[in-house]
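Example 3.
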Amino acid sequence: MIGADAVAPIAHAPVDWFAIAPEIALFGAALAIVVLRSVVRHDDRVPTASMFIAIAGVAAAGVFTGVQWGFVHGNGPYQAMSGLVAVDGFAVFVQSVILGATLLALLLSGGYLRRENLESPEYFALMLCSATGMLLMASANDLVTIFLSLEILSIALYVLAAFDRKRLTSQEAGLKYFLLGSFSSAVFLYGIALVYGATGTTNLTGIAKFFSTVVLLHDGVLFVGLALLLVGLGFKVAAAPFHMWTPDVYQGAPTPVTAFMAAATKAAAFAAILRVFVGAFHVYEVDWRPAIFGLAVLSLVVGSIAAVVQTDVKRMLAYSSVSHAGYVLIGVQAATDKGTSAALFYVCTYAVMATGAFAVVMLVARRGDDRHALTDYRGLASARPVLAGLLTLFLLAQAGVPFTGGFVAKLSVFSAAIDVGQYWLAVVGMLTAVIGAFVYLRIVLAMYAPPDDAATAEGPRIVVDAGTGVALTIAAGAIVFLGVVPGIMLDFAHAATQLLAH
Amino acid sequence: MIALSYPDHITATYYLILAAILFTIGAVGLLVRKNTLVMFMCIELMLNAANLTFVSYANAMNDISGQVIVFFTLVVAAAEVAVGLAIIIAIFRRRQSVSADDVDLLKG
């Protein structure tokens, strides 16, 4: 018999709750919704209550993020949970963007679900789970944490994409996203395994330290691993040539989910790309920069040219999302602090303008979520001038017109590229911006054209519910704010980049 | 009798090459097969190839963390199975088919 004193107590690593407080707030709200759902079964108010719980969770997470920013600003960045999670300005910036995008998506969802008769609390719980994964991804400082957060965010999104059970296109979007998403996760995981084999660690700081002391003579395994990591994350940010799923999934998924996917997922995945490549593999800059250069050029060209031939507005916006990934990659491949903060600012601006544009698309689609053809937009300006004006604003912002956030964002990524002598990349970016502008103007012209026949003018009235109205107002205000006084957010992005925990 | 010569010592390299082959089979299978269930199994194969790589490296480097990662992967794979099969079943109920070729409403 073994004496009780022979059993040593299991040593627990101290858990720094403060470091993961925003994630806990979101996940706690998700659990609260699930509990509420199972306790209160037959009550029509549960979905609405769930939405408010979700918004409260996002607000609480926002408060914790703010407190973290104050702490990081005063005491400097640090790492928690034995290096798995970083608490730094970079994480706080990306988390704020993700929380903002989640808030807007939640506001859009309430009215949408009611319109489509899909009201259920699970939707909000899933969206919060997905947002939790994204927050974790923004602060992840270990390849394993990145993989886990990637899966947390993706698995919830697969369900959300397929959420409209009555619409076959939604299920199809879910299946396509699931197959290609888990393929990319598996590729990413194998990439982690190879990097682990080459460096002996999965910790990003550990990898950076390893390369500062060791020079690998045989780095083939490392390069294959690095390439696989890039493929895995490239899928998530929808960079060409890993963008095949984007148009189908964006088109088929419920429109608020599309907005959430476009805005928040991109922000989270770009945070991971920046941390892995610009942060941990800084030493191999010479090797990965050409790869990202190629991805950027391909995304810009494919995204803008493929959008031209589309007739479905949701698909157009999906391809434009591919080209926006290209613009962010311009900032990433500069591999400088300036490039990183430009990429961060771009991601923030894109989140606002994508959510705004998809919000209007959601309203125009009306009940059934199927009026997405360009012809459905004819005569919108005379029927609903405010909505048409808002969509024009968001599209012009995406085109990069001055006095909108899109202009400042494009300008900052281009100037980051020019600073490191990548003139060609900037030229390609500007040329594709012109092609992109043509696509956006096509939608705008359709809206301001007279309705061509009576059939399109008919159909149910466009109803703007309160939540969507608030979301549109916030998005429109934010995009003008980012364009007229960009200094505040640019300073925030700059400070965030400086406070990166290496 | 056929004389087979075995290497005296099975090193990590053998496992790593096996894992690479498994991963390739999974990746190619996912791209060429049309049955969504088979595609799904290919994804599992890829995940397990990564697991095998982790374990082989962990063993070779005498480092426990690579083995711990495998547990995380297993949990993730289980969660993916639950969600993936649910989506496939939902589609099957509507179409009576699990072929990826029939999933063709979204294109353009």
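Chain A touches chain B through 42 residues (CB under 8 Å). The longest strand of chain A covers residues 78-80.
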